[in-house]
Amino acid sequence: MEIKITFPDGSVRSYEQGVTGLQIAESISPALARSVLACGVNGETVELNRPINEDAQIELYKWDDEQGKHTFWHTSAHLLAEALQELYPGIQFGFGPAVESGFFYDVLLPNGESIKESDFATIENKMRELASKKEPVVRKEVAKADALKEFAANGQTYKCEHIEQDLEDGTITTYTQGAFTDLCRGPHLMDTGEIKAIKLTSVAGAFWRGDANREQMQRLYGISFPKKKMLDEYLVMLEEAKKRDHRKIGKEMELFMFSDKVGKGLPIWLPKGTDMRLRLQDHLRKVQKRYGYQEVITPHIGSKNLYVTSGHWDHYGKDSFQPIQTPEEGEEYLLKPMNCPHHCEIFAWKPRSYKDLPLRIAEFGTVYRYEQSGELHGLTRVRSFTQDDAHLFCRPDQVKQEFLNVMDIINVVLSAFGFNFEAQISLRDPNNHEKYVGSDEDWALAEKAIQEACEEKGLPAKVEYGEAAFYGPKLDFMIKDAIGRRWQLGTIQVDYNLPKRFQLEYTDEDNQKKTPVMIHRAPFGSMERFTAVLIEHTSGHFPLWLTPDQVVVLPLSEKYNDYAKQVLEQFNQQGVRGSIDLRNEKLGRKIRDNELKRIPYMVIVGEKEAAEGLVSMRQQGGGEQATMTIQQFIDKINAEVAEQTKNF
Fold first, then answer.
1. Of 91, 136, 354, 421, which has the fewest beta carbons less than 10 angstroms from its beta carbon?
2. What pLDDT, on the 0 to 100 scale, is given for residue 620?
3. Does residue 189 sit in the same domain as residue 128?
C-alpha cells in the first residue's frame, strides 16, 4: 500500500507504507541521507528509522536545524548517562534533556560522593569510547508495571517516582543504547556514532524536581558536535564570551551591583547604569509617544485575588514569592509578578466607548518572581526586573493594524543597537490544550492575526508549537549577538482571554456591550536582560548616544586640575556627558584604567592645552588622536550623536 509524503515546498511523492525518514532522504540524494539527523512527521520530530504508516507532511532535519541539534544533544545526554553508569556504580539518575546549547543530566552519586571538574576528562573519554562503538539507540513501548519493575530492579528510585506520579499506562517509552536504558519520549539519533566531539562544560547543584525541600543532585552540563572542528570553534566562542561577560564588564564600568544583604537576584543600578537605563527608557518613550501611548505607574504589590482572576496564580503561583499576610484575616497580597492585571483594572476604571479604542497603556513596571538560587545569573536571571510593558485594548477589527504598529516600534527600537533579529511565532501545543485558557475560536483568531501581520510585513517567522503564553499566542523577536549567540528579547502577544476574565467591556457603535482584545508588548523584554545582552553584544562599547560617559578628562598633573574642571564644565553645559580623573597617577595608568571603563573618548590636558584653550583627544582603543579647541570637540561629539539618532 502506498502513502503520500508532502515536502515543505509543497511537492508530493508516493512511498510504500512503513517507509522511514532515512529511506526518504536516501531516495532524494545520498548526500542528504548522510547529513540528516531526524525528521518531522506532521509536526512531530521523530527518529529517522521510525516507520511512517499514513499520508504525512515531512521535514528532514540536519545539524543546522534546531530540531536536528536538539535530537543530537538529546542522544548525547543519554551517552553521558551511559558513561556515568559505567564509571559510578550505584548512581541515581534524574532528568537529562537537551537544552538550547547542549544538554545536561541530573545525577546523585552514592555515599555522598560528588563529581568534580577534575573528573570531566575521564567522563569525556568514556563517552567517546562508547560513541565509537556506534551503539544503536532502540525505542520500545512498555507497560507502566513493566517500567516500574525494570527501573526498580536497577535501583533507580527517582525514575520509579517519575513513572508513578507523572506517566500514564500506554504512553511510556524507553530508549536503550548498550547497557543503558532510560525513560524517554525521544527523539534520538539512530546510533551513537554520529557524536564525534564532546565537552563537559560545568557542574552545578540542582534539587530533584526543582523542589528546595528535596534531595540536591548534581547537574552535569555538556555539549557535543558531529565534527571536532565545530567543538574547537565553540571553545573559542566560549573564551570570547568570558571576556564579554556582562557581570565582569558591568563591574568594571560601574553600572550595577548585587548585595547579599539586600538579597540574591535583586540588582542595584549604580549612577552610571541608572543614567544609561533611563536613556534606554527615554528612547522607547519617544518612539511610543508617536504611536499614542499613555504612560502609567502601578503598585509593586497587588491583591492575590487579582492574580487568581487573571489566571497567573494557577499557572505561575509556584514561581511567585509567597503571599504577604496582612493583619486583616484572610487578606493576602503578592509582590507583583505581572503588570497586565493592573492594566486591565485601569481599563475597567470607567466606561469605555468604541471611540476610545485603541487604548494604549504603557509602564516601565518592576515585577518580582522567585527564581531558585542556582538559576540566578547576573542580570539575565533575576528576582526583580523591570519590563518595558504596554497593553493595548482594541476592537477585533483593529488587532492586525495595532500588531503591525508594534512590529514597527520594535524594529525602530532594536535597530538602534545594530541588532539583527528574526521572528518566532509561538503557538499552542496542539496536543495539550489543557495548559491554556480560552476557546479554540479565540485562539484561532489570535494566531491568524499574528501570521497575517508577519506576512504583510514580509517578516520570515519560524513557528514553534507549545511556546505560547497560557492566555494567547505570541511573536518573539530573537536577536543574534556579535559572537553568534541567540537571545529572546522583544515580544508581542495577542490575548482574547484576560479581557473576558476581567469582564472588560466597551460600548460599540451599535450600542451593544463588547469585549476588547488585548495586545501585550515589550520591545526590550526587560531592562535587565536587555542591558546584559547589549553589554555582551558590544563588549561594553555602547553607541555614543547611550554610553554613560562619552568622555573622560585626564589632567597631566595636579597643576592642570583647575583647567580640566573648566573643560568638563563646558562639556556638561553643552550636553556632552563626561567625568574627570584627578588621581595623582601617571598618565599611562589613567589611560589604562579608563580604557577598562569603555569610555569612548579621553581628552588630555597639560601646559599647552591650558595656555591655548585646547584639548588633546584620544579615542578608546588607541584610535583617532587630534588636538582641537574645546568647542570643536563638543561639536564633534554632538554631531556623532545626531548621526546615530537621526532615525529615531
1. 136
2. 85
3. yes
